[in-house]
């Protein structure tokens, strides 16, 4: 988080210096503005989409929750008020869990929203919270005959989180499941998958 905030400050400083030395419309000035706006504008656009979806679909609809999860994840990279952000995060998680129970465990938008929520917790160094929300999703999915790509990503991320918290048996078991399912999904890439797994 600190590195991301520092990057924004540095980009802003570079922009100001380039405006002074090169001018407002110089190519290098605009390039730097673009990189800074990539983060700021994304939140603005996502917020506009979310508000429109709230008007049309309601605040608890899975598509609304999906874009809301993306906003929360982006905001977690540059927190201005930690207490305010964490309060908003708690409320969002409550809404997300309620929506998940309402629409069922198969909805891919909700699964991705939970993945974004886990990323948010990682961004603020709350690995155990990231683990908890991923376990909510996977508790209803691991016994399936076929696991789709989004779930595989969550499984892999969760395994890595287990490694960070020294839950090595859980990490190994989950990495094995990821490998088994990747082989099922991509049998033509078997050699590449196995080689990559050896070096992960």
UniProtKB/TrEMBL annotation:
Pfam families: TPR_12 (PF13424). The lineage of its organism: Eukaryota, Metazoa, Cnidaria, Hydrozoa, Hydroidolina. This is Kinesin light chain. It comes from the Eukaryota. InterPro entries: NLR-like (IPR053137), TPR-like_helical_dom_sf (IPR011990).
